Amino acid sequence: MDITIQYTFLPHSDPDASLAFYRDVLGFEVRNDVGYDGMRWITVGPAGQPGTSVVLHPPAADPGVTEDERRTIAEMMAKGTYASIVLATTDVDGVFEQVQASGAEVAQEPIDQPYGVRDCAFRDPAGNMVRIQEPS
């Protein structure tokens, strides 16, 4: 089989803040920015990788989500336990310095993990965990 990851979805609580983080801090390209009914879906992705994108979306936009579920999603986003993404780099320490200098919330400074990577972690403006790792 020939399978690749084309899109992944991360919720946003403030589309402009999320856009600024992924575009201006991480250097992702904006691929699409669609508004509908007062909501916004923003597709971003790493430069030079047009086949891989992250869709920043309004949480609980699905009409099948109940009010109780919406509250749970909001609570989990606030704690940073609802969604996450793992990115890779060849220079985790350099990336850490740049992202930290932007004022992003640091969740973990770079450390060598026992499973063979050096990584760090941040929370994006919506609370999503963004892990960045460098293979050892």
TrEMBL record:
> Which Pfam families does this one have?
Glyoxalase
Q: Which InterPro entries match?
A: Glyas_Bleomycin-R_OHBP_Dase, Glyas_Fos-R_dOase_dom, VOC_core
| Domain VOC: start-end pairs | 4-135
According to UniProt, the name of this protein is VOC family protein
Tell me the organism. Answer: Agromyces indicus
